[in-house]
Amino acid sequence: MSKSTVSLILKILTAIIALAAFIFFSTGKSVAQNAAPSLKAVPTISGPNITLGDLFNNAGAASSRILARAPQNGQSMVFSASALQARAASMGLRWTNPDGVRQVIIGSGGTMPITSTTPGLGARPTGAAVAVTRDLVVLTRDVAKDEIINADMVSWISSDAAIAPDTILDASQLIGNSAKRNLRGGTPVRAADIGPTMAVRRGQPVTLIHEASGLKISLRGRALTDGTIGGSIRAVNIASNRTLEAIVESQGVARVLIPTTSTQITTTAQN
Q: Are residues 50 and 180 in the same domain?
């Protein structure tokens, strides 16, 4: 056998080995990428937020999505399986809960999944007292009076305890509103505890926008009443001491409703 023939055979064998290695590693990577998400046995939550990657193996692109604020030292957070599934699905992670987990308790040091003791999610032994379990919206931390509630401050717990008729069950009713009093984290919130966020507060400075004949004028004013965005307020023009009616447009800004002549106000025209 000539040297050229041996060299050709070696090249062919090398190519076959390289192709086999490529197929092996590519297949392994594909299988890993397509593996179903599963709860971690020992999750690690070290940052200020709980991410899907903290709780699930094979979370993929959804790993960095924030689930909720991490509980403070000594505190815990409880997710029912259904609430956790819904939150994960909304972020692009499909967890089928093959182990029948009923709830996940998230503490400051990690989580502890509690699985059903009988077949079927949430099944109970025959003859046992059956409690009605519901998902409740709670705050992840204490909220001060007048503080605006945002999405990062909201989580869910599963509870079979009796609740007040006006207990809030929908997170959208919390987000964007303000606390009417100091609220404790981890406890259900009642409708009477929150209210619309005030963009203008009584006694505080407010910029009054007045437009007439194509001229836009900014007035320094003081609010006489509270007001939400889109709501009406009464405010006094500091320069003329005249009381005006206005519609709140944004934080600390309102548009004058009652026309005011240029001889009654002292203003600075805006470009």
A: yes
Indicate whether 140 belongs to any domain.
yes
The helix (H) or strand (E) run that includes residue 66 is strand 66-69
Q: How many separate domains does the chain show?
A: 2
Run of H or E residues at 170: none
Q: Using the 3D structure, point to which of 157, 177, 195 is the last residue of a domain.
A: 195
3-state secondary structure of 88: helix
Which residue's entry shows tokens 């689930």? 67
Q: Which of 57-66, 102-111, 166-175 has the lowest mean pLDDT?
A: 102-111
Which contacts of 78-81 are long-range, i.e. CB under 8 A and separated by 24 or more positions?
A: 78/103, 78/104, 78/105, 78/106, 78/157, 78/158, 79/103, 79/104, 79/106, 79/155, 79/156, 79/157, 79/158, 80/133, 80/135, 80/156, 80/157, 80/158, 81/121
SS3 102: strand
pTM: 0.41
Whole-number Cα distances in Å, 54 to 60, 91, 234: 12, 14, 50
For the cut 80, the answer to whether the pLDDT of residue 139 exceeds it is yes
Higher-confidence residue of 192 and 2: namely: 192
In 3D space, the residue among 69, 143, 70, 62 whose CA is nearest the CA of residue 95 turns out to be 62
β-pair type (253-256, 205-212): parallel
Q: Which residue has the tokens 């600390």?
A: 252
Strand pairing class (110-115; 101-107) = antiparallel
Decide if 11 is inside a domain. no
116 and 233 inside one domain: no
Residue 35 makes CB contacts below 8 A (sequence gap 6+) with 57, 58
